[in-house]
Each structure stands twice: as structure tokens, then as C-alpha cells.
Amino acid sequence: MIEIADVSLVDWSRAQFALTAMYHWIFVPLTLGITFIIAFMETLYVKTGKEEWKKITKFWMTLFGINFAIGVATGIILEFEFGTNWSNYSWFVGDIFGAPLAIEGILAFFMESTFIAIMFFGWNKVSKKTHLLATWLTAIGANLSALWILVANGWMQKPVGMIFNPETARNEMDNFWEVLFSQTAVDKWLHATSSGFVLASVFVIGISAWYLLKNREIMLAKKSILVAAVFGLISSVYLVMTGDNSTRTIANDQNMKFAALEGLYNGSEGAGLVAIGVFTESETDPQNENLKDFSMKLEIPNFLSYMAFLDWNAFVPGINDLINGNEKYGYMPATEKIERGKVAIQKLGEFKNAKKAGNDQLANALKTELTSAGFQEDYFKYFGYGYFDDPQDLVPNVPLTFYSFHVMVLLGFFFILLFVLSLLYIVKGTFDKKRWFMRLAIIAIPLAYIAGQAGWIVAEVGRQPWVVQDLMPTMAAVTRISAGSVQTTFWLFAVLFTVLLIAELKIMFRQIKIGPKH
After folding, report:
1. Which residues fall within 8 angstroms of residue 435, CB to CB, at 6 or more apart?
2. Could you tell me the CA-to-CA distances from 456 to 188, 250, 444, 450, 483 in Å, in that order?
3. In 3-state terms, what secondary structure has residue 279?
4. pTM to 2 decimal places
5. CB–CB of 329/314 below 8 Å?
6. Which residues contact 131 (CB under 8 A, 6 or more apart)?
7. Splitting the chain (518 residues) into consecutive groups of 10 residues, what average pLDDT does each group show?
8. Are residues 418 and 484 in contact, defined by beta-carbon separation less than 8 angstroms?
């Protein structure tokens, strides 16, 4: 049976994984999007035969190469941390989680790496069409690589396609296609990759605006803005659509996270959407330090009900409904889930003891009970709740989830406006006359990274305390090593990643100042 680790070890392990993941996501989204922008630019070169498009393609390709190399380094460390810091998790679900990661390494990563070599070193060595094919396959490979990681993450948010094996105390994959095409996994992939497309478009427009401000590389800047604005506008509208769908999936499958991202404590029919809100420091519930009320809020009536269930008057459960239960709308109290989870854990313990004592008759009877459909539905689906005693521990950090979600959404709409104006100004030929807008476009680059980080905070903080929704809490997933060891590696990684980031920025800035080769 899995033992509970001390709080310090859990917190440091979480901090280290969050640190690695956040640094990794600084490098990844640009790779996802800029490869497609480069592919579009090279397509224009092959179609028109104009050398200026080749020069533009090669310039953005150089910036992509700088970013790609450092992104790979942080990604490899992230995967190793599953084994070093989260071994109980890896044991519990490794048969499922390992498959997407293996496919990512074997198929997508090698595909991406192979065609990158042709993309960078194949100019004048292979035909134009072969080189263009390699560029497109690099873009597709980069996004396929993201697919498998996000399938694995989606499964953690909504575990499907698996059966529990009492003999090994592990979850094993039962249906690969159900894991691959779960709504949560599809939503996460489409939303995360489209956010990368938006970030890359903002990046290209911002760098191009800097050139126009400096009155340099005018042709490159204007043509790049045109391509990036069109790609960014399409991607940002698609981002809103995928985000809307993803939010609806969360409302159905992770209703505690949904309540947290809206700061909704008490559910209601026709619930309003808090478009802007500020939490007070006062506690509305002295039993729960996470629960705070709004000091001010701007609410859109009934919109939350529609966003969640496409029904203006649907009931949306709040945190109190999920903790205390709501019989009218069929929400079970958290205390009952905890009791059912403890029964599941106890039965599994009895089975293991019977096996150990050689009592095959009892072991077989318990195995039959554990794997029965009724026990799985009534008890095993609450397995993770058995590790808790206080229902309030099931509430994530509400203010952090709420603010992150709203920052992400507001910036998403800001980027749509940025792309619309960029397209309008570049088509009218007035982009380089709008100095305020060019400065705004440069400022938008870090904002795009902030939006991406905020999105992942919503996804990961909002689902706490689970590492696998309802089945495994974070405190049960961590490796039993000393907290001091994790602290040491945390600070080593913090220094290493910061040095890598500084190095990337220095190289990137220098390359931008140099500009394309003439």
C-alpha cells in the first residue's frame, strides 16, 4: 500500500516539478507556432520563387533553432522527474502514462529532430520541394510531440480506458483509443497548441515592430507582420473556441476546478459569470482558509450556466455544494466520498494480506469483489478520497486559480484585438506610422508568455489535491526520499534553468540585432 509522505517533501516535490514545467513552457509554445509560420513563409518562397521570402524564412528559422535547443533540455529533465520524484505515481499508473510518453519519444520527437536537420542544413542540398516538405513535417512533428504529452496530462485530469489490477495494485490500459480520444485530452491538445500559435504570432509581430521602430529590415518586417497577423487572428479565434469547449469539459468532469476558476462558493441556477473580481482577505468560512469572498465584482447574469452547460438556467455547483453535498442536484457530500475511498483502500489491504498469508480462498473472493462493476462504481472511483480526513483539503487554491484564469482570458481577447489592428494597419500601409502601436506590439511579447503560464496554473493548481483525478492525491504520489534532497535539486535546477533562459535571451537578442543575412 502507498504511504503518505510528509508535507515538506510533497511541497518541495511539487515546487520542483512546477519550476521545471514552467521553464519548459517558456520555450515550447514558440516552437509549436513559429514552425508553421516558417512553413507558410517557405511555401510562399517555393510558389513565387522570390528570394526575399527565402531570406525571411531563414531569419525566423534561426530564432526557432535557438529556442528549440534549450526547450529540449528542460523537457528531458521533466520526464526524468516522473521517475525520481514521483515513483509512486509512476508505479500506480505507469502502464497507462508511459505509453503516450514512449510514443512521443519514438515517433514525434525523432520525426521532428530528423526533419529539423534537413530544414537547417538542407538548403541547396535537396530540392526546394523536398526542403519545404521537411519544414512542414518539422511543424507537424513538433505539434505531434505535444499531442502525446497532453494525452498523458489529459488522462490525469480524466482517467479513462483503464482497469485496476488488484494483484499489482496498478491501473492498466484497457482501451488505448479511449485514452487517446478522450474529450479532455483532445481539448487540452487543441487549446495548448493553438495558444502556441498565438504566442508565436505575437512574437513575430513584436520583433517586426521593433525593426520598423528602428527603421530597419522594412521589407522583412512588413511581410512577416502580414503572415503572422493572418495566422494569429485565425489561431486566436480558434483558441477562444477550444477554450470554451475545454471549460465545458471541466464543468462536467472536474466541477471543483470549475468552481475554483470562477470563485463560486455557493451554486445556483442561472449562475452569473464574474468577468472581473477582487477577493477580500476576510474569511467567509472559518473552517476553510481557502474560502474568501469578493470585495468587488463585475458579473454577467446567467452566463456561467450557459458557458458550463449551454443552458441559461442550469444549476452550477459551488465549492460548498461539492464539499457539503447537495441532495437536490445529486452532489454527494465529500465526507461520504472519503468513507467510500477508505473502504476501497481497506479492501485492497485485506486482499494483499490474504495473498501474503497464502489464504487463496479469501484472496480470490476479495479479488472478485474488488473487480466487480458494482464495487468499481460505488467505491473504487473514490479510491483517492480515502487518503483524506478533512473535506476542506479537497479545495484547491481558489484565488490563484481564479486570477490566473481571468488573466489568461483577458489577454486572449487582447491578442485578438492586436491581430485585427495589425492586419488593418499593415493592409492600409500605416503600420509603420503608428509608433504607439509598434511599442504595444513589443510589450505584447511577454504578455503572451504570461497568458500561457496562467493557463497552466489554472490546469494544474485548479485540479489539486489530485495528481490523478479522484484516484491518487499528490501526497500519495511522491517518492519517499528526503525533503533535503529535493530542496538541493530544486535550487540546482532553478539556477540551471535561469542560466539557460538568460543565455537564450542573450543569444536571441543578439541575433535579432544582427538581423537577416543580406
Report:
1. 213
2. 10, 14, 19, 10, 25
3. strand
4. 0.89
5. no
6. 42, 118, 119, 122, 123
7. 68 90 89 94 94 94 84 75 83 77 71 82 90 93 85 89 85 87 91 95 97 93 96 95 92 93 91 85 56 77 92 94 93 95 93 89 90 90 93 92 94 96 95 94 96 94 92 88 88 91 90 84
8. no
